[in-house]
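Tutorial, part two.
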Amino acid sequence: MEMNLTCLACMLRKNLLEAEKHGDEKSQMAFARGLLQAVLDAPEGVSTPCLSPVIADLFHKHLGVDPDRFQAEKAFSNQFALERLPSVNAKIQQAADPVLAALQYAILGNYIDFSALWGKVDFQELNNRLAEADKIAVDPREYKNFCQELAESKTLLYLTDNAGEIVFDGLLAEAIQARYPQLGITFCVRGGPALNDATRQDAEEVGVSDRFALIDSGCRASGTPPQMIGAELRAALKNSDVILSKGQGNVETLNGCGYNIYYAFLAKCQRFTDRFHVPPLTVMFCNERRFPD
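Running the prediction step on this input gives:
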């Protein structure tokens, strides 16, 4: 999804407001000039998440901000989700359709997004939403397609998004594996610090890497831009029968690629709510090959 004026205005506003919290006026202006130059230098047709590595580097260079500036938030998010893992897992196991129940929890986990939600992640709000996970609607036609394809497939690539959220992703993968034992499931995390997205460290901390094969994207983009990812992920995208992709960043960078991708996310920003004509934080589950206009 090519960056448009809505994306550009949002990205500039968020990062300039964040810059005001660091350094002095001179360093803030140096950051601002660097940010504007990064936009001018970006290739035509680029999506917003592709700029995340250069923005992180600008924060570090001009304002002394750690490239992994969401370390504390990621650690808290993982702990929050791990504390709820036993009760959530019990509810999944007791559900009439454990895969659907796990998918509902996994999509709700996409709420843990300190970038799209401007750092204002309300964990009490998430707790309330998790308590009513069985009430959220997942497109029944796409869910049926998803299950049918999993039954006929040998490989599933699971593209993760945020720390904390990855705990619920692990439960969904377990439910899928239990129903479709012939599937080889591979998890993919970011190749380095990217906002509060999950990395290898997070996958190891929450135990996902103990249960499933793990690769990383080979880059620090907060998405999966085909022009930036490493050879291992490029091969996995090409060779996987089904791909399950979490989060908006992956939609922004992969939409239009043609792979058999099921996108699972919450519509959190104006571009997505306008595109799908839905309120903020609406649950979305759609396929790349049948992506809504």
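The chain has a mean pLDDT of 96. In part three we will examine how such features are distributed along the chain.
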